[in-house]
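Record type: monomer structure entry
Structure origin: computed from sequence
Chain ID: A
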Amino acid sequence: MKKITALLCFAFLNLNMLHTFNLEEINYESLRKSPYTDHVEVFGRLFNAVSIENMIEFGLGLGTKFFLERIPKLTSVEIVNQDQSDAWYLNCCELYKCYTHWTPVLVRGSAYLTQANILAMQSKNPSLYDKNYLLEIKELVLTYTGKKYDLAFVDPGIHNRGDIVECLFNRVDIIAAHDTNSVPEIYGWNRIVMPGNYQKISFTKGVGLTFWVNKERKDVINALLKIKKRQSK
């Protein structure tokens, strides 16, 4: 129950942060110091080393502004289940409406995905109860990665994140997910089956950021390993 309460509080705080911030106040320094957006520090160093032209993120937030300032083409997919509000998505759209290279997408989850999220929040493996939600996630990923993306970032408002990561393998060469230090049985990190042509690189500073990179992208792997080595000093 404590884990569920903490996760609900997290979502509530995110929504209120969006109401109180304006574009000028959302900057790199404020983002990297927040546990909600501490991933920008590693991404900032990666973007300085490797060119990323086209990116898709699952989950919108304050960090979206950072990506909008660094990526020529950004698609942001917000997943809203039947027991969730779309207020977060609408507020993001209003906040970032000046960015013409941004494509926001709202996806409404079915009863299957809604129930799967509830089960995940209870530290249960949703696939043991009903696998229909997996078909929904697979279709979602196939639909929105039909075009070529260099990078996919998984940080949505639902907790079936490991399932999203797994569906992205062999569709996007660089996959990243936030909160990977946290409750693997809730987010499903412990259930990810990585194919042999990918390499996993994890950053444990803060709430955790993990990359799964196609081994053909040696430039990205080398850049991430250098960043990791620098952080360990």
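Annotation 1: The CA atoms of residues 117 and 158 lie 6 Å apart.
Annotation 2: The chain has ten helices and seven strands.
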